[in-house]
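ARCHIVE CARD
Drawer: 12
Card no.: 0347
Subject: one protein chain, sequence and derived structure
Cross-reference: see card 0346
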Amino acid sequence: MTSADAKDLIETAVRRFVEEVPALASIKLVVALELRGRGDVQQFRVQMPELKVSKEVASDARVHVTMRREFFNIMAGEAKVPDWIEAFTYGKAQASGPTQILQLIENVVERSEERRRTRRAHKH
């Protein structure tokens, strides 16, 4: 996978995630994304909310996310928010950074998922 392909996949994954959790659209954040492959590590800087992805070390990142590249490729193409929650819960993806920021993101995602489940329950 070239870095251009990876960049496109990252943009797709972030856009899809933010569509599902619109409250994240306004959060100003720089994320360092590390994709580990066979003997290779690619580092990306993901800036939000205006979504700029670049292949570089994100020395100004507040949050660091690490996962296997082949796992990310699958997740970026088809994962929904519950899949990402499961990935972080079971260690397929790891995030580190200031506790307040990680908890804020977690709370926003949980509230969004709760609203989605409530809407689905009311439709049935």
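Annotation on reverse: The chain has four helices and five strands. The helical segments are 3-20, 69-78, 81-89, 99-123.
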